[in-house]
Queue: 2 jobs
Job 1
Amino acid sequence: MGELRLIESEAAAGVGPLAVGAAGEYRVASELLLRGFMPMIAAVDMGVDIVLQDGPTIQVKTSMKPRVQRGGAANYAFRFATFSKAQGKRQRMLADFAVCWGVADDLFWIVPQAAIGDREMVHIPMGPRVRQRNLPTLFERYQGAWEALR
């Protein structure tokens, strides 16, 4: 069998952010199916990407690879800010949960809406510097927390 090779950026893959977002939705739906959930992907994005049968709603966020910051630290960045033209203001996340997918490491964080609150961005630190220092992060407890969706 061939080896899965991830493209490091949308530009290198020749795809835009909408294609990356759609890939994230299908990747998360696949993971949910394998874990015994029944996901339904929304045909129109009104703030909810996936609805679980008899369960919560999900907003999927996808980040291709960790971004390296000054000092060598790296983190995945997930944008949550949406602007409502009709209301003339920023809108908070509508879904019950966000599932954030870090593509390069194939990691998932299942984060409840309350933990995101009014944040425009969520940064999840990665890399050897974080592991070497054994630093707990704000969203660390949500990594792989699929059972929260039950």
Job 2
Amino acid sequence: MFARVSRYRGSISLRGSKRLSVIVASLVVVLITGAGKSLAADQVRVGSIPSLLALPLYLAIESDFFSKQNIDVQLTVMGNTLPAIIAGDIDVAFVGPESAIISSARGKPTPAIAALQSRNSMSLSASTKLQTPNKSSGYPKSMLDLKDKTIGIPTRGSSAEMFAKQVLAGAGYEEGRDYSVVVLNSGANVVAALRAGQFDAGVLFPPFGEQAWASGSAIPMVEEAKGEGPTYRGVGAGVSVNANIDWLKRNLPVAKRFTQALADAAAFNRDFEKNKDTLMKVAKKYVGGMDDSLLESAIRNQAKLAYVGIDCDSWRKTAEGLVSINLITSVPKCEDIAAPDIAPKDFPPSH
């Protein structure tokens, strides 16, 4: 902090000098005291499901990435963030990209200001108690094993539900006619229900897929990370960072600092071998519940996709998938569903 000092030219009395000295000394104290104070951090209310895909968020909270940007994140774990972000109960939501597209189509935009995964990495997995004679035939014929079966998902309106609908629609199946859906509120509950044989298949995402497969509770039928399923899913956007529209209009500088912190955390996340100990520690705190070797493998796979840039081509592919299952009637423009200029230009080398 700098202060401009004006010089007084002319003679002054000793009494005046003493008075001036007191004033100057007081000014110095005020300047020093003021310089020692920092501006109050901007608080951002965030909602997210517990998922390894949100590891850069957790990392930015636990490390100093947000604090360096003078941001104080208040995180709430919730199953479905869309109602809360539309209502303004939270400022930012970590969700599937479908949410921004669908909410915009319904006249309630929640613009995406960043991503957390450059590609999708969900799986549709069958219980090992289910006979799967068509699995070896590959998609879509493998979906014959799920005809008239029950599929478990974490929540309605989630990216997991959209994934299940699109994968099964690609095989010509429709919910209610060809399969049924049960809501279990979390990825951990889907794994537990698969293990207990309570239903036939479920939608899983890291680290729950790795957990279910390693325990022998389920086998993957469709893995997006391997390019399986409808082609538009394989090139679609990954986890989306959506903002309440009113909050975004009032807080553009804060939003930019927020996404920069995520970009810095994502870069740290990608350097898995160097930062493994920190990543494992943070992941255990926020996700936990699995063997270290499985968690390590899941983080290593997730780290390859940890980029925060918004690729409009990927978003268009995601929107095309929603049109294919009649959730929206047309593919919107990127600027209608996202704010790509707010997100740092952080993309995979192949972009």
